[in-house]
Amino acid sequence: MRVLLQFPEGLKQEALRHAKKLEGEGNEVFISASPTFGACDLALDEARNLKVDKLVHFGHAEFSHVDFNVEYVNYQIDAPLGLLPQSLVYLKAYDTIGISTTIQHMHQLDSVKDFYEKNGKKILIGRPYGFAKMAGQLLGCDIGSAASIDSRVDAHVYFGGGIFHPIGALLSTKKPFLVVDPFNNKISFIDSYRELYEKRRRGKIIASSGARNFGILMTTKNGQHNLALAKLLKARIEKDGLTAQILVASTFDFESLDNMREFDAFVNTACPRIAIDDTGRTRKPLLSANELIEVLRMKAEQKGIEAQSMQR
Ligand code: SF4
């Protein structure tokens, strides 16, 4: 069988080992060297180009159905649970806790739940909105497991490495948010990021107030491609007498975007985290669709005020 293997960045270090094993079993094996960010980003072009029989995607569960033979290889990581007793000190004031994690640690969520319950906490586990598949699982673009229970918990606990996943959940919740990171041996409330991200958001909107030419980013990635939204936003911008063009790439390169100097602002329709996390990587503001609507409303208000003062 001819197969193409695809690994997220954190697992690329193991690519050769897997390739050699499959080769030893009589397969013809290729490894995708492109960056990948999730199962929303399958190496389908490479797979079709090579005419492989199967694409093997490591580390993520299925995101959305694609018309290709894809095998998803789950990658469980046993994170040490030794920080949990210490986390109780941070959770003293909270009785009902919502817990969440990423797909790599889903098999440990019951142990985390048992631990807190044995220590007198009531534990709730929310359901994702659709892209993530399991209760308690967070994706950068599916924070339902935390947001769906926000009104019923006193605090949230995210168990896992880094802050990419909990930041998404943090921005869609209001309750105190504790990260228990067994890899960095760190426990911290990340609530202060809410204010920081809100400041950035306001800054982008104000910086876009004079924009006339908008570049709408549309990716070809299987799970992020949204032509309908890109067209809708283009029409909405043009309705206000402004200019918009749809810009296409698989992975957007921020330096290349900076070279497109005619554009005053960019609007993201790809992975929703781009407009949140990559703000500041382009010279021009990088807006989400909702932020664009705010910008257009602000411009319309401004126009109205100017028209009124002309009449006086
Ligand atoms: S957050 Fe972005 S990269 Fe991650 S799964 Fe969602 S769309 Fe894909």
The average pLDDT score comes to 96
Largest sheet: 5 strands, mixed
Write the H/E string, N to C: EHEHEEHEHEHEHEEHEHEHEHEH
- The structural class is alpha/beta
CATH hierarchy, class of the largest domain: Alpha Beta
Radius of gyration: 22 Å
Number of helical segments with 4 or more residues: 11
- Quickly give the CATH architecture of the largest domain: 3-Layer(aba) Sandwich
Distance between the termini: 77 Å
In order across it, which strands form the biggest sheet?
6-5-7-8-9
By CATH, the superfamily of the largest domain comes out as Diphthamide synthesis DPH1/DPH2 domain 3
Low-confidence stretches: none
Total domain modules: 3
Shape: flat
Polypeptide structure, described:
The structure is a single chain. With 312 residues, this protein is of the alpha/beta class. The chain folds into three domains: 2-73, Diphthamide synthesis DPH1/DPH2 domain 1 (Rossmann fold, 3-Layer(aba) Sandwich), CATH 3.40.50.11840; 84-190, 3-Layer(aba) Sandwich (Rossmann fold); 197-306, Diphthamide synthesis DPH1/DPH2 domain 3 (Rossmann fold). The protein is 34% helix and 19% strand. The chain contains eleven helices and 13 strands. It has helices spanning 15-24, 44-49, 84-90, 109-118, 144-147, 164-171, 192-207, 227-239, 254-259, 274-277, 289-311, and strands at 2-6, 28-31, 54-58, 70-73, 96-100, 122-124, 155-159, 177-181, 186-189, 213-219, 243-249, 265-268, 286-287. A five-stranded mixed sheet has the order 6-5-7-8-9, with helices on one face. Strands 2-1-3-4 form a four-stranded parallel sheet. A hairpin with a 4-residue loop joins strand 8 (177-181) and strand 9 (186-189). The radius of gyration is 22 Å and the shape is flat. The model has no long low-confidence stretch (mean pLDDT 96). Bound molecules: iron/sulfur cluster. Iron/sulfur cluster (SF4) is lined by residues 37-38, 40, 139-141, 223-224, 271, 273.
